[in-house]
Design goal:
The protein has 15 helices and 14 strands. By secondary structure, the protein is of the alpha/beta class. Strand 4 and strand 5 form a beta hairpin. 43% of the residues are buried.
C-alpha cells in the first residue's frame, strides 16, 4: 500500500509518498509560492533523482496536478499510474474539541474543519482547499483521511487546558489550550519508549519539539497532561519569529502606544518576535554564526531560548511529580548540540548528565541516548517523522473501511470506520 501524505499551507504544498510495506519514503517534495509569481515545484526520490522547475501554480489544484505528473513521469516517476496510490493523508493543524483522533474525510468532516477556521485561520482554510483540490484531481473515490496536530493533546485535563478568563468565553468561543505538533510528540514518545524497552504507559516523559516553531509536552501514563502551545501555536516559549508567552498587558500597551490594529499586533508577535525580535536573525545557523563571532544580541537570544526551554522542563517535571526521560526532536532538537547541552546544564538538580561527545555526535539523522550511563534521567535525541504518523493512521483507517465493506460483515460499528 502506498500513501500520499499532504501538508498544505496557503502558498505551499508539501508532499511525501510512502510505501507502507516498508514504511519508507519513495518520493517527496514541495510546491512553493502557490498563487504568486515565481511558483515552482521541487521533487526528489529516495534513490536520488530530483527535479526543480518553475511552473505556473495558480491554486492547489494546479499543485496536485504537478505532483501527480512528477510521480508518474517516465524518467523521474516512482509509480506507473495513480491507481497505485491507495489513499491520501492530510495534516490538519486545528481539530478543536471536535476531533480527538484521525478520521476518514466526508462532507461533514470538511464542514467541521471549516468551522474551526477561526481558531487557525492561517492553516485550516488552506488545508480544506487541499482536500477539495485532491478530490478534483484524484476523484471522489480516492479515500482521504485527516490527522490533527491537536488530537494527541486531547487527553489534557481541564485544569491544564482552561485559561483563567471568564468561563463564558470557553463556552461561547471554545477558547482553551489545544496544543500543536501532536503528531511529532506522539511519534517520538512511542519511539523513545521502544528504545527504552518499556511501555509508554509506565514512563513519565517530557518531549521537546524544538525548531523554528517549538513546543514541549508532558506525557504521563501514555497521555499528554500538559503542553506549551495554547489556543494557537504562538503560546509557550520563544521561537524563531514567535514571542511565546508574555504578559498580556504588553499587547494592549503596545497597541495603544503604537496605534496598532489586532492584525498588525498579530504580525509582530508571530513574524517579528522571538529570536528574530532579539537579534534580527531567525535561521539558527545565522544566529549561531553571529554568536560565535561575539554578537551580544545573538548570544542573548540563545541564552533566553535555552533558559525558557529549561523552565518548561522543570515545570513539567513538577506537574508529573518526576520525570523518567527527556527527548529532543525537530530541526534544532535534532541538530543543535549547543542548545541541548545548554538546556541540560539547568537540569543538574534532576540528576541529568550529558555525554558531550555523544551530544556532539548525534546530529544529521543519528539518534539515541546522549546522557551518561549514570545520569538519573536519560536524555534522548530522536528524529521525528510526522509524515509516517499520518501515513500509519491513514492506512489503519482505510483498512478498517475495507474490512467494513466486505460482504460477510453483517454489522458495522460507526466507531470502526
Amino acid at each position: 500500500m502506498k500513501i500520499l501524505v499532504i501538508n498544505a499551507g496557503s502558498s505551499s504544498l508539501k508532499y511525501q509518498l510512502i510505501d507502507m510495506d516498508t514504511e519508507k519514503m519513495i518520493a517527496k517534495g514541495i510546491c512553493e509560492r502557490i498563487g504568486a509569481e515565481g511558483s515552482r515545484i521541487e521533487y526528489k526520490t529516495s534513490d536520488g533523482r530530483s527535479m526543480k522547475k518553475n511552473a505556473e501554480i495558480r491554486n492547489h489544484v494546479d499543485a496536485f496536478k504537478l505532483v501527480t505528473e512528477a510521480l508518474v513521469d517516465p524518467e523521474l516517476g516512482v509509480i506507473s499510474n495513480l491507481s497505485e496510490i491507495s489513499a491520501i493523508g492530510h495534516r490538519i493543524v486545528q481539530g478543536g474539541a471536535i476531533f480527538d483522533k484521525s478520521v476518514l474525510v466526508n462532507d461533514e468532516v470538511i464542514r467541521q474543519i471549516q468551522s474551526l477556521i477561526p481558531l487557525a485561520p492561517l492553516h485550516n482554510g488552506p488545508e480544506v482547499d487541499a482536500i477539495l483540490a485532491s478530490r478534483e484531481v484524484f476523484g471522489a473515490d480516492m479515500p482521504q483521511c485527516v490527522v490533527f496536530d491537536t488530537s494527541f493533546h486531547s487527553t489534557m485535563p481541564p485544569k491544564a487546558y482552561l485559561y483563567a478568563i471568564p468561563y463564558e468565553y470557553y463556552e461561547k468561543y471554545k477558547i482553551r489550550r489545544y496544543g500543536f505538533h501532536g503528531t511529532s510528540h506522539r511519534y517520538v514518545s512511542h519511539h523513545c519508549a521502544h528504545l527504552m524497552h518499556q511501555p509508554l504507559e509506565d514512563i513519565k516523559m517530557i518531549t521537546c519539539h524544538i525548531g523554528n516553531g517549538s513546543s514541549i509536552a508532558a506525557i504521563q501514563n501514555g497521555k499528554v497532561i500538559d503542553t506549551s502551545m495554547g489556543l494557537t501555536p504562538l503560546d509557550g516559549f520563544m521561537m524563531g519569529t514567535r514571542s511565546g508567552a508574555l504578559d498580556p498587558s504588553v499587547i494592549t500597551f503596545l497597541m495603544e502606544k503604537e496605534g496598532l490594529t489586532p492584525q498588525e499586533m498579530n504580525q509582530i508577535l508571530n513574524k517579528k518576535s522571538g529570536v528574530y525580535g532579539i537579534c534580527g536573525l531567525s535561521d539558527d545557523r545565522d544566529v549561531t554564526k553571529a554568536e560565535i563571532e561575539g554578537d551580544p544580541k545573538a548570544i542573548l537570544a540563545h541564552e533566553m531560548q535555552i533558559y525558557q526551554i529549561a523552565k518548561y522542563i522543570g515545570a513539567y517535571a513538577a506537574a508529573m511529580n518526576g520525570v523518567d526521560c527527556i527527548v529532543f526532536t525537530a530541526g534544532l532538537g535534532e541538530n543543535q548540540p549547543e542548545i541541548r547541552y545548554g538546556v541540560c546544564r539547568y537540569l543538574k538538580y534532576l540528576g541529568v548528565k550529558i555525554d558531550p561527545i555523544l551530544n556532539d555526535e548525534y546530529i544529521h539523522g543519528k539518534e539515541g541516548k546522549i546522557s551518561t550511563f549514570d545520569s538519573v534521567v536519560p536524555v534522548y535525541v530522536i528524529n521525528t517523522n510526522e509524515e509516517l504518523v499520518i501515513a500509519r493512521d491513514t492506512k489503519a483507517i482505510v483498512e478498517k473501511l475495507h474490512y467494513a465493506s466486505t460482504p460477510d460483515r453483517t454489522h458495522v460499528d460507526p466507531e470502526d470506520v
